[in-house]
Amino acid sequence: MERKSKAMAALACVALLVLIGAGCARCTMVHSGQQDQPGQEQGETASVDAEEAKDSLEKLLGTKWTSQDGKSAMSIVNGAFVERSGDEEKITYWTPEKSTSDESGFSESIWVSDSLTSTQSPSTIRVDIAGDGSLVIACDSFKLAASYTIDAPESVELGITGNVGYLASLTGIDQAKIAECLQGYVTAKCPYAKTASWDGEIYIDANNDRTSSTFTLDDPNATIVTVTIDGKTGKISAM
């Protein structure tokens, strides 16, 4: 009875989301052809830090995911996985039971069903942190794809800590160019990093007139980025 009650609550939640989505669609049609007014708030997807989401499926509520082939999308709502591919939609109702965390992510035992009236069966969901700091979720109860990767957050300005001005002064490079170089690297390689901390060490290759220094990102892998400045050309690169 307890699982059935939770499943009923999950259906109510999904129904509410459908109604909200329908309302948004009607609103879009009514206002089609009109430009958004400045200051209007846009819809937001839950932003999840990989470290904070390493121990519980419930901490991933509101997140959106995409399959590796890009053909299917999945949303996690309270008590349900909602998968979509084109016009096809599949809903799997779930009830959490027990989660176990490790260095790579977490596994969680859940009870699942295809409808509110069907009997729930045991299943296991696995969430891992990928090399770029993203999250990958897999479950044998998914219907349209075996696994999904969490949608990348919108690009935000990378925060840089440390006395980077000293590095810029020593190499004769504008500090803004160092920030731009790091931003480009993070956007392409580590989209989940929010801050780059300068390690405060400078390496000089006198023979080749090159100076390099390292920054540590705050992504789950604590990625170390080496910034190299060519003294002859002024070119700056990150790897």
Automatic annotation (TrEMBL):
This is PepSY domain-containing protein. Residues 1-25 form the signal peptide. Residues 32-53 are annotated as: Disordered. It comes from the Bacteria. Keywords: Signal. PROSITE patterns: PROKAR_LIPOPROTEIN. Residues 33-44 have a biased composition (Low complexity).
